[in-house]
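Record type: monomer structure entry
Structure origin: computed from sequence
Chain ID: A
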Amino acid sequence: MNAVTKMGAVGAVALALALPAQADEADADTVLAVVDGTEITLGHVIIARENVPEEFQQMPDEALFEAILEQLVQQTALAGTVDGALSRRDRLAIENDQRSRRANAALTEAVEAATVEEALRAAYEERYADAEPEREFNAAHILLETEEEARALRAELEEGADFAELAREHSTGPTGPGGGDLGWFGAGMMVPDFEEAVMALETGDISDPVQTDFGWHLILLADTRIADVPEFEEARDELEAELQRETLEARINEVTQAADVEMRGDGIDPSLMRDSSLLDQ
């Protein structure tokens, strides 16, 4: 069984290739095959290769190229045998795919324009030009549902119980299996009540029960340090991610608000989205 069969193609179709005389002359519009008058180009192969399962990406280029091209030929030949219009399901799927791809193209254009080198450096200057070195904290916590539970464990800790072991046994938070370790964090990264409690501790201290919206915490301050202001290259990835997020949100809101949107879905039962039989009516 060849690779294209494993990739989901069916049958075998004879084809004549129209490869360029020199590989360097090829571009995305280079025609590789013509099936009943429909051209298959190098661009089609490139797009198809991007969607090949990871297990096939490791194939030698020559074998993968031939497999993809054969699959595209087979698909084109099969597509030509379908009479009439596509099914409603297929038509709607294509419309959704086109909508998604065009939207992604619009957002990509906006993000690329917003994250040029000048914009990144301006964001760096705005954030760090007058920044002072900040104190960072390394802490662990045990998250509990009630104050009574927290006070009971606090008493065990005073008697010498191991903080990490109690966290693994009792903490309801996602850090419990790791002994409650929160790693390093700076000001503004934790909810206010939690942060205030951490800042009031000395290294090695364990807090009294602290309440937040998540529950009741016992906090161990393991260490502190002074973090230097990062260099531009160190901060680049974080700044780029923030600019991307801000740009995406702003662009989506701008375009959506400017669009002529008329919502007509009032009264529709949301569970109908699970009724695939509607597509066959």
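Annotation 1: Confidence is low (pLDDT under 50) at residues 1-22.
Annotation 2: The two ends are 39 Å apart (CA to CA).
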